[in-house]
Write a structure and sequence with these properties.
It is a lipid-anchor; GPI-anchor. By secondary structure, the protein is of the alpha/beta class. It has two domains: 305 residues, Glycosidases (TIM Barrel), CATH 3.20.20.80; 138 residues, no CATH class. It has 13 helices and 17 strands.
Length: 499
């Protein structure tokens, strides 16, 4: 689960791993029953303007698909391969030759993550962890790639003890025999400390001590902010507190010049009965606020204005992952490439097309029951207060004259009217969100830039208080035998309902 952070003490010169601007990347897990092909994955990345990814392995097909895209790639040594690489320089060199050298420069590999959370999940491999990093790095040096490819290893934030206040945090001392040489290696090679940060788990394990708003980056009144009594710094979110705790922990071991990359962070969109806060709204809120926090270069209270680059966990929902329901629901997209929710990213530029600053639409779900579509269409054009006059005969969106096309228009008009709020594209399961513009011919859908690059007058798409039809909305009925017709009378009946 992945996020990148670049943070430094104010006395340390700023060193950026990717120019001077913060960026958002994503992790790509593959525990998906209907995993898209590498070509499909890359197509989604391009469509969403995602320029940084982390792979949990070094899959050849995926690396070939990423070739010549310019997308920056972090590849990984899987945990099960760590023991072999950590005990053999030759094995490490072969791994680099096969998984890195064979793909650069066409594929823009910029980092190698050696294992993942080894100290907490695979402690028997901990004694060879630093050797594995050194062997991998030596192979890069031999190929003159050490200047462009950094080597590190992601750690769980649970290795930090007494993480609040951050100024008193320190690493679990039992890992000093590994942590000290690891930090020496990172410092000597100009690499960074990879850290996985999950405020969701900190919140869940706090038994109510951590407020939900504090975990979700929601604004807090000053008297509710957490204050480090030693530094008097105010912390408005869990994420910043954990990152600063890691910096203080490194400082405690006399390492003050190593930037932090948070290689995993996110929030699940669904959970079981014991996970009531794993919801679409909370996942949307957390990731939207995290992205905004990263891209505005806020930094942390201890390190303001220092870029914080982040990999979100994760691109797809992984339905094959074991464990509670939440483990399967961290993705931004489902396997078909549809957004799980619509991010609120005002001011985030062109990143992620499934945000409210870019084009997303609500359409009739493929295979939906026509009767459900008809009922939902009636609701949207009635109680939903959508102006369905564009669907009348002779109007731009009358053709094709069927319940799927007309309900798609009505669903999307309601979705756009409600500012794409979570839950407004459902219609009892008959609708779904897409990034593909459903506009056609002269029928330009609300939310579309249109063929001429301008948006339609969306204010005219909702009932107007000055309209002669104010409070009256059309309900459309389609014949059971056929949903297509060239006439309104008979097969398409319009009745007026005044609300």
């Amino acid at each position: 689960m992945a996020l990148l952070l670049l943070l430094f003490f104010l006395t340390v010169p700023v060193v950026s791993a990717d120019d001077d601007d913060a960026f958002i990347g994503v992790n790509i897990g593959t525990a998906v029953s209907d995993m898209p092909s590498p070509t499909q994955v890359v197509a989604l990345l391009k469509a969403q303007n995602i320029r940084h990814v982390r792979l949990y392995d070094a899959d050849r097909a995926m690396l070939r698909a990423l070739a010549n895209t310019g997308i920056r790639v972090t590849v990984s040594v899987p945990n099960e391969q760590l023991l072999g690489i950590g005990q053999s320089n030759a094995t490490a060199a072969n791994w680099v030759a096969r998984n890195v050298i064979a793909h650069v420069p066409a594929t823009n590999i910029t980092a190698i993550a050696v294992g993942s959370e080894i100290l907490t999940t695979l402690p028997n491999a901990a004694p060879v962890l630093v050797s594995a990093l050194k062997f991998i790095h030596s192979a890069l040096v031999a190929s003159n790639l050490d200047g462009q490819i950094k080597v590190s290893t992601p750690q769980s934030s649970s290795i930090i003890l007494d993480s609040f206040p951050p100024s008193q945090a320190f690493f679990n001392r039992s890992w000093d025999p590994v942590m000290v040489p690891l930090l020496k290696f990172l410092q000597s090679t100009g690499s960074y400390f990879m850290l996985n940060v999950y405020p969701y788990y900190d919140y869940m394990q706090s038994n109510g001590v951590i407020p939900l708003d504090y975990a979700l980056f929601r604004p807090l009144p000053p008297n509710k902010e957490a204050v480090d009594a030693n530094t008097l710094l105010h912390y408005t979110n869990v994420f910043d507190a954990i990152v600063d705790a890691a910096y203080f922990s490194m400082s405690y071991l006399n390492f003050t010049k190593i930037p932090i990359f948070v290689t995993e962070s996110g929030w699940p969109s669904k959970g079981d009965s014991s996970e009531p806060d794993a919801t679409l709204d909370n996942a949307n809120t957390y990731n939207s606020n995290l992205i905004r926090h990263v891209l505005n270069n806020t930094g942390t209270p201890k390190h303001p204005r220092i870029v914080v680059s982040t990999y979100i966990y994760e691109l797809y929902n992984e339905d094959l992952r074991p464990g509670p329901v939440s483990e399967k629901n961290w993705g931004l997209f489902d396997a078909s490439g549809m957004p799980v929710y619509t991010l609120h990213l005002t001011g985030a530029g062109t990143l992620l097309a499934n945000d409210t600053t870019n084009q997303t639409f609500c359409v009739a779900k493929e295979g939906a029951d026509p009767k459900m579509l008809q009922a939902a269409l009636d609701w949207a054009c009635g109680p939903g207060k959508v102006d369905c006059s564009f669907l009348l005969q002779g109007q731009p969106c009358y053709e094709p004259d069927n319940v799927v096309a007309h309900s798609t228009y009505a669903f999307n008009a309601y979705f756009q009217k409600m500012a794409k709020s979570p839950g407004t594209c459902d219609f009892k399961g008959a609708a779904t969100i897409t990034t593909s513009d459903p506009s056609h011919d002269s029928c330009i859908f609300p939310g579309s830039a249109g063929r001429n690059g301008t948006f339609p007058n969306t204010t005219s798409l909702a009932p107007s208080s000055n309209s002669s039809t104010s409070g009256c909305h059309s309900i459309y009925f389609y014949g059971a035998g056929s949903v297509t017709t060239s006439v309104i009378i008979g097969v398409l009946l319009m009745s007026v309902v005044c609300l």
